[in-house]
Amino acid sequence: MRFTTPFFLLSFIASSTLANSGTPAPPASYYVMSGIIDIASPIQIPNTVSGTRVSIPFTGGNFTDSKGEVIGNIVPCVGGENGFVDSAGVFNPDGRATVKFLDGTYAYLQHMGKGSLTDGVADIAIKAETNSGDFKFLNKAFLFAHLKIIGAALHLVVFSTTKPS
Question: N or C, which end of the chain is more exposed by having fewer CB within 10 Å?
């Protein structure tokens, strides 16, 4: 009986603490940059094992800071979108881009997410790798963006859960 009483008390305290903690607050987010990526006409490959594969070449574009000033340009014809639309109609973006910052350094951006080709909207997570001193925080940051296809361009606003430094 001695073993069960402390165990019961510990379980009760733990469950009471967790039950009373409420819903956790969402993480803070910080603006990082905005981008417009110029795209070529999509190529769709229907009936693959993943669904309908969508390949969209990136032909140019740029990223801007919070003042709207260009901080880097998309290197044309180096990356693109290679996502797919699954059997439920959900668009699964999966793309890569190379950005050349104005100081001559580069960043590799890789994104994945979920969205709709019907609306042209997706939410994406972005992995970044860069040799830029000014943008080295991107290497450690969790980045996410809201992406919207408008005409022949992808428009995105990029945020981070850590404050850019």
Answer: N
CA distance 100 to 90: 32
Q: Whats the size of the chain, residue-wise?
A: 165
Identify which of 146, 80, 83 has the alpha carbon closest to the alpha carbon of residue 117: 83
Indicate the pTM of the whole model: 0.81
CB burial class (10 A; 0-12, 13-18, 19+) of residue 49? exposed
Q: Which of 63, 136, 149, 72 is nearest to 103 (CA)?
A: 72
| CA 50 – CA 152 distance, rounded (Å) | 25
Q: What is the 3-state secondary structure (H, E, C) of the chain?
A: CCCHHHHHHHHHHHHHHHHHCCCCCCCCCEEEEEEEEEECCCEEECCCCCCEEEEEEEEEEEEECCCCCEEEEECCCCCEEEEEECCCCCEECEEEEEEEECCCCEEEEEEEEEEECCCCEEEEEEEEEECCCCCHHHHCCCEEEEEEEECCEEEEEEEECCCCC
Decide the pairing of beta strands 91-92 and 94-101.
unpaired
